[in-house]
Amino acid sequence: MVQNVATRMAELEDEDFHLLSGIDHGMRFSRWVAEEKLPEFSRLDPGDIVYRIDRCMDRELLERKTIQYTGYRLTFEGYDALALRTFAERETIVDVGGPLGVGKESDVYEARSFQPLALKYHREGYTNFREVQKEREYTANNRHRSWLYTARKAAEREYEVLETLYPDVSVPRPVDQNRHAIVMERIDGVELSRAKLEPNQVIGVLDLVLNEMAAAYRAGYVHADMSEYNVFIATDGVTIFDWPQAVPTDHENSEELLRRDIENVLGHFHRKYPSNAPDVDETALKAALVEDTFEAVEQFINR
Asked: Is 268 part of any domain?
């Protein structure tokens, strides 16, 4: 598990960040940055390098490996520290609080500024790098890949999608992005998977979710990973989050992915509320906003 590096930020000095930034730069060219390259990449005096390495190693911000040469690379904690430093310099956030959610592919923390925010670190590839390489198209054509590269590309993709969809689609308002991290509006609510809807609420909530999916399609994107774990329910409606796998509607697989998203949502309601969820065909018809723009969904609805 990746540790919350926010508690260590006050201990770090400018020169520590110079070293971390230099290794970040060097990792664009190789998985492990050779020790003799560190003065060039970090612009630190060679005599200071060993001291800075020791400080960062003690705080678990770096890893070292010796095979044919001694090399270093950032840990996720080191990458987190660089992103936090940038957000602080931009005055995006002033403080980081406790965890809001820790998942397989991201960690989310409470953040504070002029309003309550959420800080999301992408962790794609941390537990199963090979599987993510196969699934994520933004890693497909890159010769040199690493966990950090994959996580950064996921954050860039998600932030781009949120900027496109907000406010026409009920998604968290994007605030800032750096490296593998995103700052966004904090959403209060209950995850759909944990919600206990009354019988008279089932159809209404299902309609809201399908309508937001339709609005996202009209704005140009298919979520491509919809499930009961990606929806918050609150008194004022629903919010759909986690968009790193989203694909544009002109993507060659967008029809199949939208169909799968709808099936996932319907499947949850049928499993949890078998007496109240409508038939698949009837429910899919409620996504009428999609029908006039997506012929494939029309075929799915009427199959």
From this structure: yes
Residue carrying structure tokens 């994007």: 174
Range of the domain at 150: 91-185
Tokens describing residue 110: 């409470």
The verdict on whether 107 is a catalytic residue reads: no
From 277, 278, 284, 172, select the one nearest 231 (Cα to Cα).
172
Point out the catalytic residue in the list 225, 236, 250, 292: 225
Report the number of distinct structural domains present in the chain: 3
Q: How far apart are CA 233 and CA 295, in angstroms?
A: 29
Same-domain pairing of 67 and 126: no
Examine residue 167 and say whether the peptide bond preceding it is cis (omega within 30 degrees of 0): yes
Q: Taking the model in full, what pTM does it have?
A: 0.87
Q: What is the pLDDT of residues 174-221, one digit of tens each?
A: 999 999 999 999 998 999 999 999 999 999 999 899 989 989 999 999
Tokens 């996202």 — which residue? 216
